[in-house]
Amino acid sequence: VGLKEELLKSIWHAFTALDLDRSGKVLSHNLCTVLNVPHDPVALEEHFRDDDEGPVSNQGYMPYLNKFILEKVQGNFDKVEFNRMCWTLCAKKNLSKSPLLISDEDAFKVWVIFNFLSEDKYPLIIVPEEIEYLLKKITEAMGAGWQQEQFDHYKIALNTSREGLSAWELIDLIGSGQFSKGMDRQTVSMAINEVFNELILDVLKQGYMLKKGHKRKNWMERWFVLKPNIISYYVSEDLKDKKGDIILDGNCCVEALPDKDGKKCLFLIKCLDKTFEISASDKKKKQEWIQAIQSTVNLLRAGSPPPHKEARQKRKELRQKLLAEQEELERQMKELQAANENKQKELETVRKQLEAAAARAAEEEKKRLQTQVELQDRFSLELEREKMVRQKMEEQVAQKSSELEQYLQRVRELEEMYKQLQEALEDEKQARQDEETVRKLQARLLEEETAKRAELEKWHLQQQQTIQMTEAEKQELENQRMMKEQALQVAMEQLKQLELERKEALEQYEEVKKKLETAANNTKSWKDKVAHHEGLIRLIEPGSKNPHLITNWGPAAFTEAELEERQRSWKGKKATSE
Protein backbone atom coordinates (compact mmCIF):
# COMPACT_ATOMS: atom_id res chain seq x y z
CA VAL A 1 0.00 0.00 0.00
CA GLY A 2 2.84 2.43 0.80
CA LEU A 3 4.54 1.89 -2.60
CA LYS A 4 1.22 2.27 -4.39
CA GLU A 5 0.49 5.56 -2.60
CA GLU A 6 3.93 6.91 -3.51
CA LEU A 7 3.42 6.00 -7.18
CA LEU A 8 -0.10 7.44 -7.29
CA LYS A 9 1.05 10.87 -6.13
CA SER A 10 3.52 11.26 -9.00
CA ILE A 11 1.09 9.73 -11.50
CA TRP A 12 -1.65 12.10 -10.29
CA HIS A 13 0.45 15.10 -11.34
CA ALA A 14 1.04 13.62 -14.79
CA PHE A 15 -2.60 12.46 -15.11
CA THR A 16 -4.07 15.89 -14.30
CA ALA A 17 -1.66 17.65 -16.68
CA LEU A 18 -2.56 15.54 -19.71
CA ASP A 19 -5.53 15.30 -22.02
CA LEU A 20 -6.47 11.69 -21.30
CA ASP A 21 -8.35 11.16 -24.54
CA ARG A 22 -5.22 11.90 -26.57
CA SER A 23 -2.38 11.13 -24.14
CA GLY A 24 -3.69 8.36 -21.88
CA LYS A 25 -2.15 5.72 -24.10
CA VAL A 26 1.24 7.50 -24.02
CA LEU A 27 1.11 7.80 -20.24
CA SER A 28 0.23 4.12 -19.80
CA HIS A 29 2.99 3.02 -22.18
CA ASN A 30 5.58 5.14 -20.34
CA LEU A 31 4.40 3.86 -16.95
CA CYS A 32 4.72 0.24 -18.05
CA THR A 33 8.22 0.97 -19.39
CA VAL A 34 9.70 2.73 -16.34
CA LEU A 35 7.92 0.41 -13.84
CA ASN A 36 9.11 -2.73 -15.67
CA VAL A 37 5.54 -3.97 -16.08
CA PRO A 38 5.11 -6.39 -19.03
CA HIS A 39 2.49 -5.13 -21.50
CA ASP A 40 1.15 -5.95 -24.93
CA PRO A 41 0.98 -2.98 -27.37
CA VAL A 42 -2.01 -4.61 -29.09
CA ALA A 43 -3.89 -4.93 -25.80
CA LEU A 44 -2.96 -1.33 -24.97
CA GLU A 45 -4.52 -0.17 -28.25
CA GLU A 46 -7.60 -2.25 -27.36
CA HIS A 47 -7.94 -0.50 -23.99
CA PHE A 48 -7.82 2.96 -25.56
CA ARG A 49 -9.99 2.42 -28.64
CA ASP A 50 -12.62 5.03 -29.45
CA ASP A 51 -15.78 2.98 -28.85
CA ASP A 52 -17.44 2.44 -25.48
CA GLU A 53 -16.42 -1.20 -25.00
CA GLY A 54 -12.82 -0.61 -23.85
CA PRO A 55 -11.99 -0.81 -20.11
CA VAL A 56 -11.02 2.86 -20.01
CA SER A 57 -14.26 3.99 -21.59
CA ASN A 58 -16.71 2.29 -19.26
CA GLN A 59 -14.70 2.26 -16.01
CA GLY A 60 -12.51 5.38 -16.04
CA TYR A 61 -8.73 5.60 -16.11
CA MET A 62 -7.94 5.09 -12.37
CA PRO A 63 -9.53 1.60 -12.11
CA TYR A 64 -7.63 0.67 -15.27
CA LEU A 65 -4.40 2.04 -13.77
CA ASN A 66 -4.85 0.01 -10.57
CA LYS A 67 -5.80 -3.25 -12.26
CA PHE A 68 -3.50 -3.38 -15.28
CA ILE A 69 -0.40 -1.46 -14.09
CA LEU A 70 -0.03 -0.81 -10.34
CA GLU A 71 -1.06 -4.30 -9.23
CA LYS A 72 1.73 -5.74 -11.43
CA VAL A 73 4.50 -3.54 -10.02
CA GLN A 74 7.18 -5.64 -8.26
CA GLY A 75 9.42 -2.85 -6.94
CA ASN A 76 12.32 -3.61 -9.31
CA PHE A 77 12.35 -0.20 -11.00
CA ASP A 78 14.33 3.02 -10.83
CA LYS A 79 12.44 5.40 -8.54
CA VAL A 80 14.23 8.50 -9.86
CA GLU A 81 13.61 7.56 -13.49
CA PHE A 82 9.90 6.99 -12.74
CA ASN A 83 9.56 10.38 -11.05
CA ARG A 84 11.48 12.09 -13.83
CA MET A 85 9.07 10.69 -16.41
CA CYS A 86 6.04 11.99 -14.47
CA TRP A 87 7.82 15.33 -13.94
CA THR A 88 8.48 15.68 -17.67
CA LEU A 89 4.75 15.24 -18.43
CA CYS A 90 3.51 17.79 -15.89
CA ALA A 91 6.31 20.35 -15.36
CA LYS A 92 5.96 22.27 -18.61
CA LYS A 93 2.27 22.98 -17.96
CA ASN A 94 2.47 23.84 -14.25
CA LEU A 95 5.98 25.23 -13.60
CA SER A 96 6.05 28.97 -13.03
CA LYS A 97 7.26 31.08 -15.97
CA SER A 98 8.88 33.62 -13.63
CA PRO A 99 12.66 33.20 -13.10
CA LEU A 100 13.65 31.15 -10.05
CA LEU A 101 16.87 31.03 -8.03
CA ILE A 102 17.03 27.25 -8.42
CA SER A 103 17.66 25.11 -11.51
CA ASP A 104 15.14 22.82 -13.20
CA GLU A 105 16.93 19.83 -11.67
CA ASP A 106 16.54 21.32 -8.17
CA ALA A 107 12.88 22.07 -8.92
CA PHE A 108 12.42 18.40 -9.89
CA LYS A 109 13.94 17.28 -6.58
CA VAL A 110 11.69 19.67 -4.62
CA TRP A 111 8.71 18.22 -6.53
CA VAL A 112 9.68 14.66 -5.55
CA ILE A 113 10.17 15.72 -1.91
CA PHE A 114 6.71 17.34 -2.03
CA ASN A 115 5.17 14.00 -3.07
CA PHE A 116 6.91 12.35 -0.11
CA LEU A 117 5.77 14.91 2.49
CA SER A 118 2.30 15.79 1.14
CA GLU A 119 -0.94 14.59 2.73
CA ASP A 120 -2.62 11.38 1.47
CA LYS A 121 -5.61 13.18 -0.06
CA TYR A 122 -6.29 14.83 -3.39
CA PRO A 123 -5.70 17.43 -4.65
CA LEU A 124 -2.24 17.06 -3.09
CA ILE A 125 -1.07 19.76 -0.66
CA ILE A 126 1.72 20.08 1.89
CA VAL A 127 0.64 21.43 5.28
CA PRO A 128 2.54 24.24 7.11
CA GLU A 129 4.12 21.81 9.59
CA GLU A 130 5.74 19.81 6.76
CA ILE A 131 6.77 23.04 4.99
CA GLU A 132 8.54 24.12 8.17
CA TYR A 133 10.22 20.69 8.46
CA LEU A 134 11.48 20.85 4.84
CA LEU A 135 12.72 24.46 5.09
CA LYS A 136 14.53 23.62 8.33
CA LYS A 137 16.25 20.64 6.69
CA ILE A 138 17.38 22.78 3.73
CA THR A 139 18.54 25.62 6.01
CA GLU A 140 20.47 23.16 8.18
CA ALA A 141 22.09 21.64 5.09
CA MET A 142 23.17 25.13 3.96
CA GLY A 143 24.75 25.76 7.37
CA ALA A 144 22.54 28.83 7.97
CA GLY A 145 20.45 29.80 10.96
CA TRP A 146 16.71 29.09 10.99
CA GLN A 147 14.51 32.22 11.03
CA GLN A 148 11.59 31.02 13.14
CA GLU A 149 9.95 34.44 13.49
CA GLN A 150 9.99 34.97 9.72
CA PHE A 151 8.35 31.59 9.14
CA ASP A 152 5.73 32.23 11.84
CA HIS A 153 4.64 35.38 9.98
CA TYR A 154 4.49 33.42 6.73
CA LYS A 155 2.54 30.61 8.44
CA ILE A 156 -0.04 33.04 9.85
CA ALA A 157 -0.55 34.57 6.41
CA LEU A 158 -0.86 31.08 4.87
CA ASN A 159 -3.36 29.74 7.43
CA THR A 160 -5.72 32.65 6.84
CA SER A 161 -6.15 31.78 3.16
CA ARG A 162 -5.66 28.01 2.73
CA GLU A 163 -4.68 24.71 4.36
CA GLY A 164 -1.32 24.31 2.57
CA LEU A 165 0.65 24.67 -0.68
CA SER A 166 0.62 22.75 -3.94
CA ALA A 167 3.83 21.34 -5.40
CA TRP A 168 4.25 24.28 -7.76
CA GLU A 169 3.66 26.83 -5.01
CA LEU A 170 6.29 25.05 -2.87
CA ILE A 171 8.78 25.24 -5.78
CA ASP A 172 8.01 28.96 -6.16
CA LEU A 173 8.52 29.49 -2.40
CA ILE A 174 11.94 27.78 -2.32
CA GLY A 175 12.95 29.24 -5.70
CA SER A 176 12.08 32.77 -4.58
CA GLY A 177 14.93 32.70 -2.03
CA GLN A 178 12.65 34.04 0.72
CA PHE A 179 14.15 31.64 3.28
CA SER A 180 17.66 31.40 1.78
CA LYS A 181 18.72 35.03 1.56
CA GLY A 182 22.46 35.53 1.41
CA MET A 183 23.10 32.05 -0.05
CA ASP A 184 24.37 31.49 -3.59
CA ARG A 185 22.68 29.15 -6.07
CA GLN A 186 25.31 26.43 -5.63
CA THR A 187 24.85 26.31 -1.85
CA VAL A 188 21.06 26.08 -2.19
CA SER A 189 21.42 23.39 -4.87
CA MET A 190 23.77 21.30 -2.70
CA ALA A 191 21.37 21.63 0.26
CA ILE A 192 18.38 20.50 -1.84
CA ASN A 193 20.42 17.55 -3.16
CA GLU A 194 21.42 16.52 0.38
CA VAL A 195 17.79 16.58 1.58
CA PHE A 196 16.72 14.71 -1.58
CA ASN A 197 19.31 11.98 -0.94
CA GLU A 198 18.13 11.53 2.64
CA LEU A 199 14.33 11.66 2.19
CA ILE A 200 13.91 10.11 -1.28
CA LEU A 201 16.98 7.93 -1.92
CA ASP A 202 17.15 6.81 1.76
CA VAL A 203 20.85 7.80 1.98
CA LEU A 204 21.62 7.71 5.70
CA LYS A 205 25.32 8.61 5.33
CA GLN A 206 27.95 8.93 2.59
CA GLY A 207 31.62 9.83 2.26
CA TYR A 208 35.12 8.74 1.21
CA MET A 209 36.94 5.97 3.15
CA LEU A 210 39.66 3.39 2.49
CA LYS A 211 38.63 -0.26 1.95
CA LYS A 212 40.89 -3.30 2.16
CA GLY A 213 40.59 -5.69 -0.77
CA HIS A 214 39.65 -9.36 -0.21
CA LYS A 215 42.06 -10.80 -2.78
CA ARG A 216 44.99 -8.41 -3.24
CA LYS A 217 44.77 -7.05 0.36
CA ASN A 218 45.51 -3.54 -0.88
CA TRP A 219 43.81 -0.38 0.37
CA MET A 220 41.75 1.68 -2.10
CA GLU A 221 39.78 4.87 -1.58
CA ARG A 222 36.05 4.41 -2.24
CA TRP A 223 32.92 6.55 -1.98
CA PHE A 224 30.59 4.76 0.47
CA VAL A 225 26.79 5.24 0.50
CA LEU A 226 24.80 3.86 3.48
CA LYS A 227 21.14 2.98 2.93
CA PRO A 228 18.63 1.17 5.21
CA ASN A 229 19.70 -2.33 4.11
CA ILE A 230 22.88 -1.94 2.04
CA ILE A 231 26.23 -0.14 1.84
CA SER A 232 27.35 0.53 -1.74
CA TYR A 233 30.83 1.72 -2.63
CA TYR A 234 31.93 3.49 -5.79
CA VAL A 235 35.12 4.80 -7.36
CA SER A 236 34.01 8.41 -6.83
CA GLU A 237 31.04 10.42 -5.60
CA ASP A 238 29.52 10.74 -9.09
CA LEU A 239 28.22 7.14 -8.52
CA LYS A 240 29.03 6.10 -12.08
CA ASP A 241 31.47 3.22 -11.41
CA LYS A 242 30.01 0.94 -8.72
CA LYS A 243 32.55 -1.50 -7.20
CA GLY A 244 30.36 -3.55 -4.88
CA ASP A 245 27.73 -3.79 -2.11
CA ILE A 246 27.70 -4.77 1.55
CA ILE A 247 24.30 -6.37 2.23
CA LEU A 248 23.12 -5.54 5.77
CA ASP A 249 20.75 -7.62 7.91
CA GLY A 250 20.02 -8.25 11.56
CA ASN A 251 23.00 -10.62 11.87
CA CYS A 252 25.59 -8.02 10.85
CA CYS A 253 27.75 -6.22 13.39
CA VAL A 254 30.37 -3.46 13.35
CA GLU A 255 33.47 -3.32 15.57
CA ALA A 256 36.29 -0.82 16.07
CA LEU A 257 39.83 -2.11 15.35
CA PRO A 258 43.21 -0.93 16.69
CA ASP A 259 45.62 0.79 14.32
CA LYS A 260 47.80 -1.63 12.33
CA ASP A 261 49.92 -1.82 9.17
CA GLY A 262 50.23 1.96 9.13
CA LYS A 263 46.43 2.40 8.89
CA LYS A 264 44.50 4.34 11.49
CA CYS A 265 40.83 4.78 12.44
CA LEU A 266 39.99 1.20 11.45
CA PHE A 267 36.70 -0.62 11.93
CA LEU A 268 35.25 -3.96 10.83
CA ILE A 269 31.87 -4.86 9.30
CA LYS A 270 30.98 -8.53 9.86
CA CYS A 271 28.35 -10.18 7.64
CA LEU A 272 27.37 -13.82 7.29
CA ASP A 273 29.56 -14.51 4.26
CA LYS A 274 32.19 -11.74 4.31
CA THR A 275 34.09 -9.38 6.55
CA PHE A 276 35.12 -5.86 5.43
CA GLU A 277 37.98 -3.81 6.89
CA ILE A 278 37.57 -0.03 6.44
CA SER A 279 39.74 2.95 7.42
CA ALA A 280 38.10 6.36 8.08
CA SER A 281 39.85 9.69 7.62
CA ASP A 282 39.79 10.57 11.34
CA LYS A 283 38.44 9.37 14.68
CA LYS A 284 35.30 11.50 14.42
CA LYS A 285 34.37 10.07 11.03
CA LYS A 286 35.12 6.56 12.30
CA GLN A 287 32.77 6.97 15.26
CA GLU A 288 30.06 8.53 13.07
CA TRP A 289 30.17 5.61 10.59
CA ILE A 290 30.17 3.00 13.38
CA GLN A 291 27.13 4.61 15.02
CA ALA A 292 25.30 5.02 11.70
CA ILE A 293 25.86 1.39 10.64
CA GLN A 294 24.97 0.04 14.09
CA SER A 295 21.76 2.12 14.13
CA THR A 296 20.86 0.76 10.68
CA VAL A 297 21.42 -2.84 11.83
CA ASN A 298 19.32 -2.21 14.95
CA LEU A 299 16.48 -0.90 12.76
CA LEU A 300 16.72 -4.02 10.58
CA ARG A 301 16.56 -6.26 13.66
CA ALA A 302 13.50 -4.40 14.95
CA GLY A 303 11.88 -4.29 11.51
CA SER A 304 11.53 -0.50 11.78
CA PRO A 305 11.44 1.89 8.79
CA PRO A 306 14.21 4.48 8.17
CA PRO A 307 14.29 7.36 10.71
CA HIS A 308 12.94 10.02 8.31
CA LYS A 309 10.00 7.84 7.26
CA GLU A 310 9.20 6.96 10.87
CA ALA A 311 9.39 10.65 11.81
CA ARG A 312 7.04 11.56 8.95
CA GLN A 313 4.53 8.93 10.10
CA LYS A 314 4.72 10.21 13.71
CA ARG A 315 4.13 13.79 12.56
CA LYS A 316 1.07 12.67 10.60
CA GLU A 317 -0.28 10.69 13.56
CA LEU A 318 0.24 13.69 15.85
CA ARG A 319 -1.63 15.95 13.42
CA GLN A 320 -4.47 13.43 13.18
CA LYS A 321 -4.61 13.16 16.98
CA LEU A 322 -4.73 16.93 17.45
CA LEU A 323 -7.40 17.21 14.73
CA ALA A 324 -9.48 14.49 16.40
CA GLU A 325 -9.18 16.24 19.79
CA GLN A 326 -10.18 19.54 18.23
CA GLU A 327 -13.18 17.95 16.50
CA GLU A 328 -14.20 16.30 19.80
CA LEU A 329 -14.05 19.68 21.58
CA GLU A 330 -16.10 21.27 18.82
CA ARG A 331 -18.63 18.45 19.08
CA GLN A 332 -18.90 18.92 22.85
CA MET A 333 -19.31 22.66 22.36
CA LYS A 334 -22.13 22.07 19.88
CA GLU A 335 -23.82 19.62 22.26
CA LEU A 336 -23.60 22.11 25.12
CA GLN A 337 -24.90 24.89 22.88
CA ALA A 338 -27.83 22.73 21.80
CA ALA A 339 -28.58 21.81 25.42
CA ASN A 340 -28.43 25.49 26.34
CA GLU A 341 -30.87 26.38 23.59
CA ASN A 342 -33.23 23.62 24.77
CA LYS A 343 -33.08 24.92 28.34
CA GLN A 344 -33.79 28.44 27.08
CA LYS A 345 -36.83 27.14 25.21
CA GLU A 346 -38.03 25.27 28.29
CA LEU A 347 -37.57 28.39 30.43
CA GLU A 348 -39.51 30.49 27.90
CA THR A 349 -42.30 27.92 27.93
CA VAL A 350 -42.45 27.98 31.73
CA ARG A 351 -42.49 31.83 31.69
CA LYS A 352 -45.39 31.85 29.25
CA GLN A 353 -47.20 29.30 31.38
CA LEU A 354 -46.70 31.53 34.42
CA GLU A 355 -48.01 34.55 32.53
CA ALA A 356 -51.03 32.60 31.35
CA ALA A 357 -51.64 31.28 34.85
CA ALA A 358 -51.39 34.81 36.27
CA ALA A 359 -53.85 36.05 33.68
CA ARG A 360 -56.22 33.26 34.50
CA ALA A 361 -55.85 33.96 38.23
CA ALA A 362 -56.64 37.65 37.68
CA GLU A 363 -59.69 36.77 35.64
CA GLU A 364 -60.90 34.34 38.24
CA GLU A 365 -60.27 36.91 40.98
CA LYS A 366 -62.44 39.41 39.08
CA LYS A 367 -65.17 36.81 38.74
CA ARG A 368 -65.02 35.95 42.44
CA LEU A 369 -65.61 39.63 43.38
CA GLN A 370 -68.73 39.68 41.20
CA THR A 371 -70.26 36.48 42.58
CA GLN A 372 -72.67 36.32 45.37
CA VAL A 373 -71.68 36.16 49.04
CA GLU A 374 -72.86 32.62 49.40
CA LEU A 375 -70.19 31.48 46.91
CA GLN A 376 -67.30 33.28 48.72
CA ASP A 377 -66.19 30.30 50.79
CA ARG A 378 -65.99 28.06 47.73
CA PHE A 379 -63.96 30.66 45.80
CA SER A 380 -61.63 31.15 48.82
CA LEU A 381 -60.75 27.47 48.69
CA GLU A 382 -60.07 27.74 44.98
CA LEU A 383 -57.81 30.74 45.62
CA GLU A 384 -55.72 28.80 48.12
CA ARG A 385 -55.42 25.97 45.68
CA GLU A 386 -54.29 28.40 42.98
CA LYS A 387 -51.63 29.85 45.30
CA MET A 388 -50.23 26.41 45.91
CA VAL A 389 -50.04 25.77 42.15
CA ARG A 390 -48.26 29.10 41.64
CA GLN A 391 -45.72 28.27 44.37
CA LYS A 392 -44.96 24.93 42.76
CA MET A 393 -44.51 26.57 39.37
CA GLU A 394 -42.17 29.17 40.87
CA GLU A 395 -40.13 26.40 42.49
CA GLN A 396 -39.92 24.70 39.09
CA VAL A 397 -38.76 27.97 37.50
CA ALA A 398 -36.08 28.39 40.18
CA GLN A 399 -34.93 24.80 39.66
CA LYS A 400 -34.78 25.26 35.87
CA SER A 401 -32.83 28.51 36.33
CA SER A 402 -30.33 26.74 38.64
CA GLU A 403 -29.86 23.95 36.07
CA LEU A 404 -29.38 26.53 33.33
CA GLU A 405 -26.71 28.31 35.41
CA GLN A 406 -24.91 24.97 35.95
CA TYR A 407 -24.94 24.30 32.21
CA LEU A 408 -23.61 27.79 31.48
CA GLN A 409 -20.84 27.28 34.07
CA ARG A 410 -19.92 23.96 32.42
CA VAL A 411 -19.76 25.72 29.04
CA ARG A 412 -17.39 28.36 30.46
CA GLU A 413 -15.20 25.65 32.05
CA LEU A 414 -14.95 23.76 28.74
CA GLU A 415 -14.06 26.98 26.91
CA GLU A 416 -11.31 27.65 29.48
CA MET A 417 -10.02 24.06 29.15
CA TYR A 418 -9.94 24.50 25.37
CA LYS A 419 -7.90 27.72 25.67
CA GLN A 420 -5.51 26.10 28.18
CA LEU A 421 -5.03 23.10 25.87
CA GLN A 422 -4.20 25.40 22.94
CA GLU A 423 -1.73 27.36 25.09
CA ALA A 424 -0.08 24.13 26.33
CA LEU A 425 0.30 22.90 22.75
CA GLU A 426 1.84 26.21 21.67
CA ASP A 427 4.22 26.18 24.68
CA GLU A 428 5.33 22.62 23.93
CA LYS A 429 5.88 23.43 20.27
CA GLN A 430 7.88 26.57 21.15
CA ALA A 431 9.97 24.62 23.71
CA ARG A 432 10.83 21.97 21.12
CA GLN A 433 11.79 24.61 18.60
CA ASP A 434 13.95 26.43 21.19
CA GLU A 435 15.61 23.17 22.20
CA GLU A 436 16.37 22.29 18.57
CA THR A 437 17.82 25.78 17.95
CA VAL A 438 20.05 25.63 21.05
CA ARG A 439 21.20 22.11 20.16
CA LYS A 440 22.20 23.15 16.66
CA LEU A 441 23.98 26.26 18.00
CA GLN A 442 25.90 24.20 20.55
CA ALA A 443 26.87 21.65 17.89
CA ARG A 444 28.13 24.36 15.56
CA LEU A 445 30.09 26.11 18.35
CA LEU A 446 31.61 22.77 19.39
CA GLU A 447 32.74 22.06 15.82
CA GLU A 448 34.29 25.54 15.53
CA GLU A 449 36.05 25.17 18.87
CA THR A 450 37.37 21.74 17.87
CA ALA A 451 38.76 23.10 14.61
CA LYS A 452 40.42 26.07 16.31
CA ARG A 453 41.86 23.85 19.02
CA ALA A 454 43.33 21.47 16.46
CA GLU A 455 44.94 24.38 14.57
CA LEU A 456 46.42 25.87 17.78
CA GLU A 457 47.78 22.48 18.84
CA LYS A 458 49.43 22.09 15.41
CA TRP A 459 51.12 25.52 15.73
CA HIS A 460 52.19 24.78 19.29
CA LEU A 461 53.69 21.42 18.26
CA GLN A 462 55.73 23.06 15.48
CA GLN A 463 57.07 25.70 17.89
CA GLN A 464 57.93 23.05 20.47
CA GLN A 465 59.82 20.98 17.91
CA THR A 466 61.83 24.01 16.81
CA ILE A 467 62.68 25.00 20.38
CA GLN A 468 63.60 21.44 21.31
CA MET A 469 66.00 21.10 18.35
CA THR A 470 67.93 24.29 19.32
CA GLU A 471 67.98 23.72 23.05
CA ALA A 472 68.71 20.01 23.19
CA GLU A 473 72.51 20.40 23.56
CA LYS A 474 72.14 23.28 25.98
CA GLN A 475 69.78 21.24 28.08
CA GLU A 476 72.21 18.29 28.16
CA LEU A 477 75.10 20.47 29.44
CA GLU A 478 72.82 22.08 31.96
CA ASN A 479 71.72 18.66 33.18
CA GLN A 480 75.34 17.55 33.67
CA ARG A 481 76.17 20.75 35.57
CA MET A 482 73.07 20.33 37.74
CA MET A 483 73.93 16.70 38.48
CA LYS A 484 77.45 17.68 39.64
CA GLU A 485 76.13 20.52 41.77
CA GLN A 486 73.56 18.17 43.27
CA ALA A 487 76.27 15.60 44.05
CA LEU A 488 78.44 18.33 45.68
CA GLN A 489 75.47 19.56 47.65
CA VAL A 490 74.68 16.04 48.84
CA ALA A 491 78.33 15.54 49.91
CA MET A 492 78.32 18.85 51.85
CA GLU A 493 75.07 17.93 53.55
CA GLN A 494 76.45 14.50 54.45
CA LEU A 495 79.60 16.12 55.87
CA LYS A 496 77.54 18.48 58.01
CA GLN A 497 75.39 15.59 59.11
CA LEU A 498 78.44 13.59 60.13
CA GLU A 499 79.79 16.58 62.08
CA LEU A 500 76.52 16.82 63.98
CA GLU A 501 76.43 13.08 64.59
CA ARG A 502 80.03 13.15 65.81
CA LYS A 503 79.27 15.94 68.33
CA GLU A 504 76.13 14.17 69.51
CA ALA A 505 78.05 10.89 69.89
CA LEU A 506 80.80 12.66 71.87
CA GLU A 507 78.23 14.19 74.21
CA GLN A 508 76.52 10.84 74.62
CA TYR A 509 79.86 9.22 75.31
CA GLU A 510 80.68 11.75 78.10
CA GLU A 511 77.26 11.29 79.61
CA VAL A 512 77.49 7.51 79.52
CA LYS A 513 80.98 7.63 80.97
CA LYS A 514 79.74 9.70 83.96
CA LYS A 515 76.83 7.32 84.49
CA LEU A 516 79.18 4.31 84.43
CA GLU A 517 81.47 5.89 87.03
CA THR A 518 78.50 6.62 89.29
CA ALA A 519 77.13 3.12 88.82
CA ALA A 520 80.57 1.59 89.59
CA ASN A 521 80.79 3.50 92.90
CA ASN A 522 77.26 2.55 93.85
CA THR A 523 77.75 -1.14 93.13
CA LYS A 524 81.19 -1.67 94.65
CA SER A 525 79.80 -2.17 98.16
CA TRP A 526 77.37 -4.94 97.28
CA LYS A 527 79.29 -6.56 94.39
CA ASP A 528 80.84 -9.12 96.73
CA LYS A 529 77.48 -10.10 98.16
CA VAL A 530 76.23 -11.39 94.84
CA ALA A 531 79.46 -12.89 93.62
CA HIS A 532 78.30 -16.38 94.51
CA HIS A 533 75.23 -15.90 92.32
CA GLU A 534 77.38 -15.45 89.17
CA GLY A 535 75.54 -18.26 87.47
CA LEU A 536 72.15 -16.65 88.02
CA ILE A 537 72.81 -12.91 87.89
CA ARG A 538 75.22 -11.09 85.56
CA LEU A 539 76.10 -7.57 86.66
CA ILE A 540 76.01 -4.76 84.12
CA GLU A 541 79.59 -3.77 83.42
CA PRO A 542 81.19 -1.12 81.23
CA GLY A 543 81.59 -1.87 77.53
CA SER A 544 84.54 -3.08 75.55
CA LYS A 545 87.98 -1.85 76.55
CA ASN A 546 89.19 -1.78 72.97
CA PRO A 547 91.36 1.23 72.35
CA HIS A 548 89.48 4.24 70.93
CA LEU A 549 90.65 6.51 68.16
CA ILE A 550 92.04 9.88 69.24
CA THR A 551 91.14 12.98 67.17
CA ASN A 552 92.12 16.65 67.46
CA TRP A 553 89.07 17.17 69.63
CA GLY A 554 89.60 14.13 71.95
CA PRO A 555 88.45 10.49 71.89
CA ALA A 556 86.52 9.48 68.77
CA ALA A 557 82.83 8.58 68.97
CA PHE A 558 83.29 5.42 66.84
CA THR A 559 85.54 2.44 66.64
CA GLU A 560 87.48 1.70 63.52
CA ALA A 561 84.97 -1.01 62.49
CA GLU A 562 82.03 1.34 62.94
CA LEU A 563 83.80 4.10 60.99
CA GLU A 564 84.56 1.74 58.11
CA GLU A 565 80.91 0.67 58.06
CA ARG A 566 79.78 4.32 57.88
CA GLN A 567 82.28 5.09 55.10
CA ARG A 568 80.88 2.23 53.03
CA SER A 569 77.35 3.59 53.66
CA TRP A 570 78.40 7.14 52.53
CA LYS A 571 80.02 5.84 49.39
CA GLY A 572 76.88 3.83 48.56
CA LYS A 573 74.64 6.91 49.03
CA LYS A 574 76.97 9.07 46.91
CA ALA A 575 76.98 6.52 44.08
CA THR A 576 73.17 6.36 44.20
CA SER A 577 72.81 10.17 44.05
CA GLU A 578 75.16 10.37 41.04
Show the helix and strand layout.
Blueprint: H1 2-17, H2 20-34, H3 41-47, H4 55-59, H5 61-68, H6 79-94, H7 104-117, H8 128-142, H9 148-159, H10 167-175, H11 185-199, E1 205-212, E2 219-227, E3 230-234, E4 242-247, E5 253-257, E6 266-270, E7 275-279, H12 283-302, H13 307-370, H14 376-523, E8 550-551, E9 554-555, H15 560-577
Antiparallel strand pairs: 1-2, 1-7, 2-3, 3-4, 5-6, 6-7, 8-9
Keywords: Cell membrane, Cell projection, Coiled coil, Cytoplasm, DNA-binding, Membrane, Nucleus, Phosphoprotein
Subcellular location: Cell membrane; Cell projection, Lamellipodium; Cytoplasm; Nucleus
GO molecular function, one term: DNA binding
Please outline what is shown here.
With about 575 residues, the chain is α+β, with helices and mostly antiparallel strands.
Order of helices and strands: HHHHHHHHHHHEEEEEEEHHHEEH
Share of helix among residues?
A: 55-70%
Sheet with most strands: strand arrangement: 4-3-2-1-7-6-5
Strand content: 5-15%
Distance between the termini: 86 Å
Number of helices: 15
> How many strands appear in the DSSP assignment?
9
Q: Biggest sheet, in brief?
A: 7 strands, antiparallel
Stretches where pLDDT falls below 50 for ≥5 residues?
Answer: 51-55, 534-541
Mean pLDDT: 83
**Global morphology:** flat
